């Protein structure tokens, strides 16, 4: 997943305003207390950030990839 895909999914799944507000304000406990914006800027994989945000917001798998998206592979570490 590329960062642009992260932002597309964020807007599709959560809505433009709410999604952007969450990315800016929601502290992600599993990412050292960073927000999504901070985690992406720190170099975290967009798919990891997306999954952590969705897990924390209790977004089920059936909704988190939008209507026309398949789950991209997890990054290799």
TrEMBL record:
Superkingdom, taxonomy of origin: Bacteria
Matching Pfam families: DUF3046 (PF11248)
InterPro entries registered for this protein in UniProt: DUF3046
Protein name, UniProt field: Cytosolic protein
Originating organism: Bifidobacterium ruminantium
């Amino acid at each position: 997943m590329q960062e642009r895909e992260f932002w597309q999914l964020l807007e599709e799944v959560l809505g433009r305003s709410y999604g952007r507000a969450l990315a800016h304000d929601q502290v992600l406990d599993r990412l050292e207390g960073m927000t999504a914006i901070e985690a992406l800027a720190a170099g975290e994989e967009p798919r990891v950030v997306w999954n952590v945000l969705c897990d924390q917001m209790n977004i089920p798998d059936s909704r988190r990839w939008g209507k026309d998206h398949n789950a991209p592979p997890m990054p290799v570490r």
